[in-house]
Amino acid sequence: MKIFCSRIFLDSDYVQNKNKLAIIMLIMVSGLLQVNDTFAAQLKAGVAKVNITNTESAAFIRDSTYVKALVFDNGLTRVVIIAVDLIGLPNSFLEDVRGKLQEEIKIRPENVLINVSHLHGVSECSDIVQRTVLAVKRALKLMVPVRVGVGKGYEDRIMENRRLRLKNGKEWTIRHANPLPSDQEVTGTGPVDPELGILRIDKKNGEPLAVVYNFACHPYQGVSRTGTTAGFYGFASKVIENNLNNGTIVLFLQGFGGDIIPILYKDVNSARDQEPLGNMLGLNILQTLKKIKAAESAELKIIREIIELPMRSDFPQRIEALKTEETNLLKSLRGTSLNIKTFIPLYIKYNLFQDYPSYYSHMYLHEKMIGRHDLEGLDSENRRNMDKYLRNIYAMEELARIQENLSLLQEKQTQYEISANKTILAEVIAIRIGSFILVSFPGDVAVQIGLNIKKISPFEFTFMSGHSNGSVGYALTSQQYSGDAYEDTNCLLGPEWQKIYEDKVLEMLNKL
Fold it and tell me: Do 371 and 464 reside in the same domain of the chain?
């Protein structure tokens, strides 16, 4: 500034021209005001939560479900992040909440991000919109000056990729609705994202006000007794809140975990219980929080884009291919003298006593000595029948999966046919809070896409928020469309969507 001012007074051309001098002084003052405003802005935040447990439909409530609201304001921009314990956004929920927030407290709709945890097995209360707006209003009233810090944790013990790679080049999804393929058919599994994204928000006196954590995994599995639970994220949040000061609120933001499930999801030897997984996750986050230092920052920015994504159009071909596979499997079925009652005892016996399954060894040796082979012949016949019976079982398991996939493809084909534009509009938001970067998508996104974006991002702390501001269903990588897994047949987006989205996200990140 000193150089610029000295030029004004030493250059005779500027001194002689009063109009030019006035313009320059105005520009200089305006610039100073803008810079001072930016640096003087104090980041404020407020947080609140409201219980949304549907007590009318829950026979047993293991732990409550919540809507949690976090509001940021730096004097120039106001951003609202809402986390809801639901499987998806109810009809018109996003529009209703945004409309009320704009009407009642003047919050711009494009500055509101609503993320659902994708919690299975619970239903929302009837006044969910009103309770959500109430949470935001409370958070707004409780705003205080804050410091923020960001960090990464690592957790790979509680989840697995549910897509199994098979010898035939296809993939199979681990689900309770379908049996698993035989062990001999499985050649590999897909990736996971073990990264924990953590945003720490402290009051000026150093007390934690709120914690936001981001992780990629379906929160279903339940607890040992059927009833309402917020999943392992609910248990994790409780562990964190109980170990911080009173009043700290913890928000979970679901990541890109469309193909990620809790570990040992198909275990039949122990009761399902997400609490141990949640405890592990919560304790891990607490350890990482200790290493995160909150600092002054006025950096707050939000970018919103609506992108047009193509629908897939290969439904007739996919349906025809599955019908052909179904026909071939039906033709592969063979008659056998066994049924389930006779097969199971034989199968156990012939696997426990492979050398002499039908009787004691001395009888086999006796027959061999006298030139007879009755027991060996019986064993050969039983093994042939068991092999045929097993092949029939495997064929029936594949037929069951094909039936479900056909139903899903036919449903998606109907949606495609009634669509006028054959495209899907998706809202994408990018938020920057200090060094914390959050990128959203309104769907159940494959974990690999999140890994891709983190790799290309110019920011160290970039995290993904799936199931945000809408729902377009499953969003796969372009390579996954031929896998014949559950997600492949339950996806309405065309494979081109991935490049369109990743290119748009990189553009948005560069603007942050």
Answer: no
